[in-house]
């Protein structure tokens, strides 16, 4: 059975876009440490009143620094993954359907648009791939 990688990747992109799966390009941990640092500084300088002031200032600063670092999984899949990574993702998706017959897999792309159960399988596989293989955080 031959699998058209381009069609599978396009279908996966549509499904992830419909489910609004987003990934972080940079670590969210850095933003939380920034907020904690501002909160500590506010509390150290202003006492108890400095806690909400520092947290607010830290949150705004972290937001300004992390703006644009969250991307749609569909954009990452279509535009930023290498051909090799796309082939690996396609392999993971096809592997999820290993118990299906060849005819079923061939009809997978059209079925994805109508079957919530198949979409759930795809979303799970994509999230695992992005998290485990590409070390991205899913939000």
Automatic annotation (TrEMBL):
Transmembrane segments: 35-63
Xref: Pfam families: C19orf12
InterPro entries xrefs: C19orf12
Top-level division of the source organism's lineage: Eukaryota
Annotated keywords: Membrane, Transmembrane, Transmembrane helix
PANTHER family in alphabetical order: NAZO FAMILY MEMBER, PROTEIN C19ORF12
Family statement drawn from the similarity comment of this UniProt entry: Belongs to the C19orf12 family.
Name of this chain's protein: CLUMA_CG017629, isoform A
